[in-house]
Amino acid sequence: MKAKLLFFSALTFSMTVLGQQVQRASKLFVQNGLQFHTWAKTGAHEWPANLYPGFETYRSTVPPNNTTARYVRIQLPGDSNEILSLAEVRVWSGGVIRSLGKVATQSTTDVAEASRAVDGNLNGDYFNGSVTATTPSAQPWWQVDLGAPYPIDNIEVFNRTDCCTTRLRGYHILVSPNPIVSNGLEDAINEQGVVVVGSSFAIGNEYTNLPFAQDYYEKPGYNYSFFKSHPNAKWGIEKGPFGNHLNSTVGPTTTQGPTADQLANGFLNAAQLSKLSNLVTIGIGDEENYSTDVLNWTTDWFNLSRSKYPGVMLHNNQYVNQWSDANMRTYIQTAKPDFISFDNYLFSEGTPGFAGGSLKPMYDYLGRYRRLALEGLDGTGASPIEFGQYLIGFKQGANQYDEGGLYYSSESQIYGEIFGSLTMGAKWVSAWRYTRDGSSKFWIDSSGNPMAAYYWYAKGLREFNNLSPYLSRLRTTDIRVIPGQYKNGTTTTTNPRSAETPLWTSGAGSYITSITATNQVPATNNGLRGDVLVGYFKPVPNLATDTDLTLGPLPNNKTKFFMIMNGLTKANGCCNADGTPAFATDTIAGKANKATQKIRLAIDFGTLPVDVLKRINRSTGAEETVSLTLVSGKRYTVDITLDGGKADLFYWQNELTNLALYQPATQSSTSGSYVASKSVDGDTSGILYPNLQGSHTLQESQPWWQVDLGAIANLTDVKLYNRTDCCANRLTNYYIFVSDVPFTSNTVSGTLAQSGVRSFLNTGQAGSPSVRTVGGSGRYVRIQLNSTSQILHMGEVEVYGYFNPAANFNKVAVDKVAVDKVDLDTNRLNIYPNPLKNGVPLKLDFVTDSPEDGVIISLSNIAGQLMWSRKVNTIKGMNKMEFGMEGLSKGVYLIILEGTNLKITRKIIVEN
User: 663-802 has which fold?
Assistant: First the structure.
């Protein structure tokens, strides 16, 4: 017996309604990916150099590379109206000031000549005749010719003291064996032999092995030398736009709001504009106390930034709990940031860890920002934004903000912050801060060698980036915790729980009935179990319909994900100076493998089919199938072993989801603004008046409402939420119709007579909800009243089931088109014609080794979106089938055949 199937109508209706857009904040993160940043040096000197007595003397030291130079230049970075004033510049070599009395020049002169900075007079009062000054100009410079090349030991710059000390912010020191002839700063840096002297930053392999997005907090908000070596690096501006605070309560220099010129022309300088395509974030101000002025200034800067630089993500940062919930809500709803962020560094010499190895304070603080971000731009949750936090990047002292102390955070604690952020749904983190300067040696030691944290962050960042294609497209929906334990004296006590993280229960996700953790390291936490953090996610709404975005690696726009995190961490030892054997011992005390837990998931599929558990491999980014261990019946277990602070991302391949959510809906007529889509928007309250939370037809004969699920799915139930504010009795005596193909009639009798339509009559009044089991396959679901003169209104309709998974393949290039790499076994499957003219039937000939019931034949586009699928029975030997292909646009598609003993995928090309 040969099977011949003709399907000519299923492709004449679009799978989704194109054009529905993802909200701005989520869209930018999908386009740019998850963000991992660090505070980075600009190569300039930020803080004003002031003259003793009463002020600090600023000394810049050349990196230890025996730099030899004859010419030394001081130059400001500003594009216009900059004045360069210097009291003195002393260039030391061999214990001698080589600059004293040498020939000095400057870009322009406003009375005060260049020689005043090498006259040996340290008096910084301009009116005493020993301070230089240029005229207001772009990137003014001063330089000295030492008369001969000297190996430079260090350079001291003395600032003016009577006023105007902030003019020297962001100055660069350039040295060279040759005359520096360019007027522009970037051109001067690019001259042969020029070395930029000053604070060091990651470059070369030091950067490429740990490629944080570079955030610039200080003037000029850009690093000329860095981008010379890494022109495609991602970067951001913090404490923007000019390295100042917005008001004077937290700093001597202020930005306040934009000027008329900035409103008209923007605020990025020429160098920044040259790298605009790589600019991903702008932070306006930093840690200002809340005020109406700060709110208004921030709002104005955000509005200007969205206008001039629309692809850049915007935020303002506070220290933890600096602003109240009410302040934060006003800020979010008024200024409309793309994400909110805070800084808090958890540990210190006195508190190197918390009870039970828990990160409960992070759950508190990050959970609060998560809650506020999800309330969104209008406070209702309809337009959520994103959120994130700063992470530890320095050695801590007596309190968590003291830099240069002796506590060096552990590997498990660092992973706990990284993966705890992801599990809780954060999409932006920043390691504060990447520097070699001062006593806070955290990344690179005094000999220039990477320290332990450098390698820990490098590994964490790689895994972070591997998860980014998934998590950037997902939105956090829930966060739960299974608390660990600790010893309180001799008593075993449950770890404290955050109010922001509810206890995990079996109803939080599908199939999993219990989660238990077992500590694998008896010497850690007295062998007691640690926390387990569980995060739940769904795809960002409208991801499948936004014409600027793709689903990426997501199987479809309904697939729900969950993340399991080992919340057990172990502190490092404290407090020994780096470079000592004791410090080396300290830094291995809290390694991640000393806080390993085995986390067991108990799974019960009940009456549902046994599902397939997929995990995203952190090391590779590839999907892998997780083996389940059978207990009995449809009960299984799976063991997940995670080092301290680590987490894994999972999804169930065929998990039941509400397939109707956000899908195209229509109805026989519409009353006012109560459109059909109001019943697939996720709001089940049923309050139609005055909240518009539902659909509503006119009074007519047998009114109907229907939804297109976008593809044929395996259905289980339809859940119907009646109106709750009044008139619930109207939703009585109704049919639920289910079909693989569109309905062709507007009447109950006509739809009952349509071939392939399944019907379910409900004679009573619908509840809120009412659940009806429908089973089988279906793409179109209709609710229709049997009455000849009535109004149909509903709060929400949910249709539960699952799509057959789209194929997941490696990308290759074929005929200049990116297509999926597929099985080309022509001995088992022939497809013809191929290429295929639109509208011409597609014929399949394939061989099976034995008869098989329930072979799935499906068609997906190149993005992995399922167009349709059919379940067929096969015979042993040759099977011949034929499919109608109307309605397909020009492009590349995949035909997938999948059964118990069969899995073949082939590429087809559709031509106009």
Answer: Jelly Rolls (2.60.120)
